[in-house]
Amino acid sequence: MNIHYLTLFPEMYDGVLNQSILKRAREKGIVNYHTVNFRDYAENKHNQVDDYPYGGGAGMVLKPEPVYNAMDEINTKNARVLLMCPSGRPFDQKFAEELSKEETIVFINGHYEGYDERIRNIATDEVSIGDYVLTGGELASMTMTDAIVRLIPGVIEEESHLDDSFSTGLLEYPHYTRPREYRGMKVPDVLLSGNHKLIEEWRQEESYKKTRERRPDLLENFNEKNEK
Ligand code: SAM
């Protein structure tokens, strides 16, 4: 998979994409990350990428030319072009699974007050990572990259994400490791029983219980799906 980031702050990606699983995915040749500073594609001598809004009002608006020019330079044939914005489609696990099957993804990261409306025409999707406003799209696109890349086959063991929260439709069951008892807190007996059927039932019950307590909204969908 090729992932391109159109950004005014390419250095922000250095730390995140060069660590841990995202770094290993690149080293294994599964994914390539490319940052493009669209300031380099501005059409004026001061490389200005933003301007005052027509009609007045607070804040600056990203101009269309630098973004369109930068897009002309990268191969976006069949790419999913994702425009980061708080008013976009909410990002979730299902969306991450869908995007993990793409060959090319382009993230367009806004800053300032927002985009000139015409920039929306080059996006295939507008995406939000939650109901809050960030100063720019970079952290949002890094969050999404992390969620997407770990789902690409070969990046981590498939088993480790099959049971993840949201993948099953429920929140994940509790995990324990050694020691058996720590500061008076004991590992549930069932996990030490060696009985795989009982362990599986316990995990399913715990997942269900946790989801009912914390996210009853998820449970409605889960029940509906499982009744069919
Ligand atoms: N005035 C805009 C609005 O109300 O929708 C917010 C602009 S925000 C300060 C600047 C940029 O940060 C946005 O253009 C977008 O790229 C990014 N951004 C902010 N919040 C985001 C979110 N929840 N999800 C994705 N991107 C976000």
TrEMBL record:
<dbReference type="InterPro" id="IPR002649">
    <property type="entry name" value="tRNA_m1G_MeTrfase_TrmD"/>
</dbReference>
<feature type="domain" description="tRNA methyltransferase TRMD/TRM10-type">
    <location>
        <begin position="1"/>
        <end position="220"/>
    </location>
</feature>
<dbReference type="InterPro" id="IPR029026">
    <property type="entry name" value="tRNA_m1G_MTases_N"/>
</dbReference>
<comment type="function">
    <text>Specifically methylates guanosine-37 in various tRNAs.</text>
</comment>
<comment type="similarity">
    <text>Belongs to the RNA methyltransferase TrmD family.</text>
</comment>
<dbReference type="GO" id="GO:0005829">
    <property type="term" value="C:cytosol"/>
</dbReference>
<dbReference type="GO" id="GO:0002939">
    <property type="term" value="P:tRNA N1-guanine methylation"/>
</dbReference>
<comment type="subunit">
    <text>Homodimer.</text>
</comment>
<keyword id="KW-0489">Methyltransferase</keyword>
<dbReference type="Pfam" id="PF01746">
    <property type="entry name" value="tRNA_m1G_MT"/>
</dbReference>
<feature type="binding site">
    <location>
        <position position="110"/>
    </location>
    <ligand>
        <name>S-adenosyl-L-methionine</name>
    </ligand>
</feature>
<dbReference type="InterPro" id="IPR023148">
    <property type="entry name" value="tRNA_m1G_MeTrfase_C_sf"/>
</dbReference>
<dbReference type="InterPro" id="IPR016009">
    <property type="entry name" value="tRNA_MeTrfase_TRMD/TRM10"/>
</dbReference>
<dbReference type="InterPro" id="IPR029028">
    <property type="entry name" value="Alpha/beta_knot_MTases"/>
</dbReference>
<feature type="binding site">
    <location>
        <begin position="129"/>
        <end position="134"/>
    </location>
    <ligand>
        <name>S-adenosyl-L-methionine</name>
    </ligand>
</feature>
<keyword id="KW-0963">Cytoplasm</keyword>
<protein>
    <recommendedName>
        <fullName>tRNA (guanine-N(1)-)-methyltransferase</fullName>
        <ecNumber>2.1.1.228</ecNumber>
    </recommendedName>
</protein>
<dbReference type="GO" id="GO:0052906">
    <property type="term" value="F:tRNA (guanine(37)-N1)-methyltransferase activity"/>
</dbReference>
<keyword id="KW-0808">Transferase</keyword>
<keyword id="KW-0819">tRNA processing</keyword>
<keyword id="KW-0949">S-adenosyl-L-methionine</keyword>
